[in-house]
Amino acid sequence: MKVLIVGSGGREHAIAWAVSKSAKADKIYCAPGNAGIAEYAECVNIGAMEFEKLADFAQENQIDLTIIGMDDPLVGGIVDEFESRGLRVFGPRKNAAILEGSKAFSKDLMKKYNIPTAAYETFTDASAALAYLEKADFPIVLKADGLALGKGVLICNTLEEAKDGVKTIMEDKKFGTAGNTMVVEEFMTGREVSVLSYVDGKTIKTMTSAQDHKRAGDGDTGLNTGGMGTFSPSPFYTEEVDAFCKKYIYQATVDAMAAEGREFKGIIFFGLMLTEKGPRVLEYNARFDDPEAQVVLPPMKTDIIDVFEACIDGTLDQIDLQFEDNAAVCVVLASDGYPVKYDKGLEIRGLENFKDKEGYYVFHAGTKEADGQILTNGGRVMAVSSFGTQMEQALKQSYANVARLSFKDMSYRRDIGQDLIEVKGKKLEAIS
Question: Which of 78, 326, 342, 421 yields a CA-CA distance of 20 to 30 A from 164?
């Protein structure tokens, strides 16, 4: 079969890698792709938001299955465009992708169907938001309603910080139209856990748990980013937590969307906070998260094409979803200055160390090929994923692999997973 993947980041590289392992995939295309994806797929120079051109390409090249990796095209309705032409496509329709596209919608949905989440209020007027904050308890969370590349969330410890946050989101429009509506949310404390799931409209099957590290700097300092690293599984995601979430969050969300006439087929990401009062939903996403995809896809033993097709056909209940019982750590390599300002076009060295290796991988995010060289082409450049029977092994291997790569002003967090283990009373040698 011919497969088209839409997107250009580390998530799409992980998807392309997984698809390449399927015996059913004879030819893989990716639009627009990147230098890493080009190892598995023919990259096509069509942007992810060029819906008609993408659908034309799929028709002209007799594509059997299109996989939408990115949030913007899903929220924009790319699946609807493909389905209107009779094309087979994996991902939620526009009316279901709103689960990620509008935080106000998702919060209202959770409230209506008693899905546990933080208390909140929604505002379209900055002055009304400011008046509410005058009487609020702190810390408090401000969220731009729409898509903001994972950066539209501000944690404010004081009223002054909150006032600045309102200005940033609603008045200065730092996150563009995503800030036309703002959600003010109760600040929750606890462990964050990420759980990805496959959904066919009625059945939901979850993947291994993970934990992302959103802040740019060690010790969770600095600005929010698209994600600087992750580990899987989370030891804090216990059998008891899983049972609670399956009953009160996962299936409840799928059923709620169906009840609203918004049948969801594709990927639902559950961002959870494990509070003293039990698990609560922080956010939903309507696609694979990045860099979570880079740790949950390589251990998946079930053919990914079979899973995608079952989600489309409504037969996910017939799929035996299996994963290797291992530990994974992913460390993101970024350009210095990310997520604000950074250089591009810098030569990347050391990629030959990862050719045809098993157990560790480099997934490209912001890269391009020029004159036979692989160059940086974004803020997040690559993600180094390593696997082992124990978390200690995976963690040590990931940082050893990071040391095999280099580009000018390469930046990365040195504490991914460090709070999970202690080796001889000190940090791992590979990190120090």
Answer: 342
| Last residue in a domain, options 145, 171, 186 | 186
Q: Distance between CA 319 and CA 429 in Å, rounded?
A: 42
Taking the C-alpha atoms of residue 409 and residue 401, their distance in angstroms, rounded to an integer, is 17
Distance CA 184, CA 118 (A): 10
180 vs 175: CA distance, rounded Å: 9
Q: 170-196, pLDDT tens digit by residue? A: 999 999 999 999 999 999 999 999 999
Residue 430 banded pLDDT, cuts 50, 70, 90: very low
Query: Which of residues 318, 347, 369 is at a domain's end?
Result: 318
Q: Give me the amino acid identity at 188.
A: M
Structure tokens given for 22 = 């399927």
Number of domains in the chain: 4
pTM of the model: 0.91
Domain that holds residue 237: 191-318
Q: How far apart are CA 163 and CA 166, in angstroms?
A: 5
3-state secondary structure at position 7: strand
Separation in Å, CA 331 to CA 33, 110, 423: 21, 33, 19
Looking at the structure, tell me whether residues 267 and 342 fall in a common domain. no
Residue at 428 is within a domain: no
Alpha-carbon distance 145 to 181, whole Å?
Answer: 5
3 state SS of 61: coil
Per-residue confidence band for 423, with pLDDT thresholds at 50, 70 and 90: very low
| 278 in the same domain as 230 | yes
CA–CA separation, 301 and 297 (whole Å): 9
CB 348 within 8 A of CB 367: yes
Measuring CA to CA, which residue among 292, 324, 294, 288 is closest to residue 199?
288
CB atoms within 10 A of CB 217: 15
| Residue 164 lies inside a defined structural domain of this protein | yes
| Residue 422: inside a domain | no
Q: Is pLDDT of 426 > 80?
A: no
90 and 153 inside one domain = no
How wide is the angle at C-alpha 431 spanned by C-alphas 408 and 389, nearest 5°?
A: 120
Whole-angstrom Cα distance, residue 221 to residue 317? 42
Strand 42-43: give its sheet, edge to edge.
42-43, 27-32, 2-7, 65-68, 89-90
Other Cβ atoms closer than 10 A to 365: 28
Contact 187, 155 (CB under 8 A): yes
Residues 302 and 349 in one domain: no
Q: What is the mean pLDDT of the chain?
A: 94
